Amino acid sequence: LPTPRGGGVSFVLVAAATSFFGFLQPIFSGQSGLPAGELAIVILPLLALPLAVVGFLDDRYNLPAELRYIFQLLTALMLILVSPLPLPWLMLPPMLIVVTAVINFTNFMDGLDGLVSGCLVVAIGSLAIALTAPPSLWALVGSLIGFMFWNWSPAKVFMGDVGSTFLGALFSGLALQAPSWSEAFGYLLVATPLLGDACLCVIRRLLDGQRVFQAHRLHLFQRLNQAGWPHAHVSLTYIVTTSLLAVSMHVGGLPWVSCFSVLVLLAGVWLDQRVALPFAVASKS
């Protein structure tokens, strides 16, 4: 039986609804408004909501890539504008590329049962702890955990672009709410298993002369699965390493998470060379 897509609507709606009521909460309680830092975190799901709508439509109608990227750029711009981090105007174009890359890499990695949902529960949860996030953000974490029960192998539902692009945007926005650029980069490194796999695969395909925008099954997680690892085995490997990176970031900050990120990448190279279906073989299939 075909597995339905678009299940990401579940946690997108929870996040958007709790974000909306979190934004209105001071009005009902007679307060003048939320503090600036808390307000920015509360409205992040609302800023990413239009991108989720585009993802939902793309899941159903296969929208043009140019239209999707325009909305990714607009979402990235809003996430950068609400960030407290200082950013010279000359650095705006590179930051737009970085944020849209995280959005797309998250989307690329949504190809195995429980992989993206599990890793992003850890990554977003670790940011929620670090930023002392309001309840609205924890509602997203809780709904994402609930979604994992349906998305775990064998998956009964996939999140689709509506969920993966939303999570990529929200993760980027939360990292940009860090008190310093070093901490923002550190929390981005927490997602090294996901983002590193996607980034290195794009580079490898470019060097191999392949069309990087063409659909493929060349990511490390896919080739591990093709080599015989079950979905749950691959996903747990990525989730556990993401958890170790999150703990290292909370304990030792950027130096620790940087060291562990290098170790994770080296472990990925070992798996690529010794365990996974070879890249050259997978490219021909």
Topology, pairings included?
Elements: H1 9-29, H2 36-61, H3 65-81, H4 92-108, H5 115-130, H6 135-151, H7 160-175, H8 181-189, H9 192-207, H10 220-226, H11 231-274, H12 279-284
Helix pairs in contact: 1-2, 1-6, 2-3, 2-7, 3-4, 4-7, 4-9, 5-6, 5-7, 5-11, 7-8, 8-11, 9-11, 10-11
Describe the sheet with the most strands: none
Low-confidence stretches: none
Radius of gyration: 18 Å
Structural class: mainly alpha
The global form is globular
Give the count of helical stretches. 12
Can you give the mean pLDDT?
94
Tally of strands: 0
Give the fraction of residues assigned to helices. Answer: over 70%
User: Could you tell me the strand content as a percent range?
Assistant: under 5%
Give the topology string: H per helix, E per strand.
Answer: HHHHHHHHHHHH
Cα-to-Cα separation, first versus last residue: 24 Å
Could you please describe the fold and organization of this structure?
The protein is mainly alpha-helical. It has 12 helices and no strands. The chain has helices at 9-29, 36-61, 65-81, 92-108, 115-130, 135-151, 160-175, 181-189, 192-207, 220-226, 231-274, 279-284.
